[in-house]
Amino acid sequence: MRQRNYLTPTLRDVPADAEIKSHQLMLRSGLIRQTASGIYSYLPLGKKVLRKVEEIIRSEMDEAGGQEVLMPAIQPAELWEESGRLGDYGPELMRLKDRHDRDFVLGATHEEVITTLVRDDVKSYKKLPMNLYQIQTKYRDERRPRFGVLRSREFIMKDAYSFDTSQEGLDKSYQDMYSAYQNIFSRCELDFRAVEADSGAIGGTDTHEFMVLSEIGEDTIAYSDQSDFAANIEIAPVHAKYEKASADPLELEKVDTPNTKTIADLTSFLQVNSNETIKSLLFIVNEEPVLVLVRGDHEVNEVKVGNVLGKAVVELATPEQTARILGCETGYIGPIDVPNSVKIIADHAVEFVTNGVCGANEKDKHYKNVNPGRDFAVAGYEDLRLIQEGDPSPDGKGTIQFAKGIEVGHVFKLGTKYSEALGATFLDENGKTQSLIMGCYGIGVSRTVAAIVEQHHDENGIVWPASVAPFDLHLVTINVKDEGQRNLGEELYQTLKQERYDVLFDDRPERAGVKFKDSDLLGLPIRIGVGKKAAEGIVELKIRKTGEMIEVHISDLLDTLK
Ligand code: ATP
Ligand code: MG
Ligand code: MG
Ligand code: MG
After folding, report:
1. How many angstroms does the Cα of residue 337 sit away from the middle of ligand 2?
2. Atom from ligand 1 closest to the CA of residue 142
3. Cα separation of 17 and 24, whole Å?
4. Model confidence at 521: pLDDT above 60
5. How much distance in Å is there from the Cα of 407 to the middle of ligand 3?
6. What is the Cα–Cα distance from 92 to 108, expressed in whole angstroms?
7. What angle do CA 86, 90, 94 make, to 5 degrees?
8. Res 403 pLDDT > 60
9. How much is the pLDDT for 345?
């Protein structure tokens, strides 16, 4: 590709509104341009990187038995009504009407569409298991789109859905996707951790997030320095199993909590009964109280939440965000529509523990004066304090470290939630009708590109890993006014193309300094400079990652590149 008429509008200056490196560099190197808040266009280089990442994803998904489909971005609202999510999803779901005044939504995710597809066309266990995936544009009206394509309102996602006939089948499908994700992110040369992500199933492995380690990550993860243990910090404390301590019978005062009418009431209840500073919100969800606790002395991302099932609540940050996720005003108490996945886990041994107050394993009740250790024991922990850096890992191997992470992928066992809601059944071996057992698996493709830039750059620009670089080589004729250089550049361009290299050829009549700066900024793995020694048949290779420069005779060039 000739750079002369290639759309790579590089910028010298750091765009004022770009806070993080990847956003700055993606703008500066001309990968993306903002069209509206949280809505981006990909310029040719950006599109090429997207495709590279997509191809890695495709190859691993296909290898794992996935079948690629393409579903509509625009979906009838009735489908979401049927699944019960139309109200639940809240303002993040973009809604529109057609000319006949019929309601539609822009797909934020595709469980409804895929479940009805499979419902209508897969009837027998003989066809199962099945894994369908797509790479497609998603829409979420994020309240705070930021960091460029890292959190945008229109973005590209790979979403896959598995359909099984048994729980064991789902376990295998899930494991296959988990492994595929590990391959995908490794091939993108990302430093990542797969973390347990849901406080709901205590000790369970029903959902994992793939977190790219990065200071600008919005999540905090706790991981062991000596084992695979890793968990989103919100759930790390509840990862360990809570057990009723055997020694003492519970001598606790059980108190009613559902009648708490205002947040102030609830907060004061907790304040009185706990020696922590706690801000709390009580939401009534499907007529059940959901308690959300925010420890005042912790950073936004270290907010602690009761073991409320469902990622929406687990991911809470501030009370305002909580309220938004739950689709109500801050401070509002009463029946509200929230995601189905948000509900109190009434049947766990401990619904919520802080020093002094804990769930009573009974709807609408709490214990006060809880003495952790006396009344409840946690396997792996001496007491019930929140997980800290330096704690022993719950699996007994190594010590807990904290890191910030960017969620690039998420795998989730759905079970029969959508198949039941939408009537997706199959006939089993005995001719009995059963609900399909589902899993869903997402990767933020555009976010992954940003995460790669976030981890692969230096002060001069992007340093693309070869696997996702938009071109293999940057061939630069340093002075196009020099006929010798110009001719050798042209000749090498043809040769390298014939050798199946994808080459960006800087044939622009620019000054050497500008060309080198741009070349470093674009960050292709290898630069081939055709300069003063062209007459002797010598070119200069620069390895972008190490900065190493090597003079090579053109007769050795192809061998050197191998
Ligand atoms: P987040 O916690 O960052 O809001 P999410 O948990 O809401 O993400 P999922 O529903 O799990 O996202 O979607 C699957 C993947 O899609 C995420 O792991 C992430 O990589 C990507 N993704 C989600 N929201 C966005 C967004 N606004 N912009 C870019 N990518 C996104
Ligand atoms: Mg989200
Ligand atoms: Mg998330
Ligand atoms: Mg997620």
Report:
1. 17
2. 27
3. 9
4. yes
5. 6
6. 8
7. 80
8. yes
9. 25
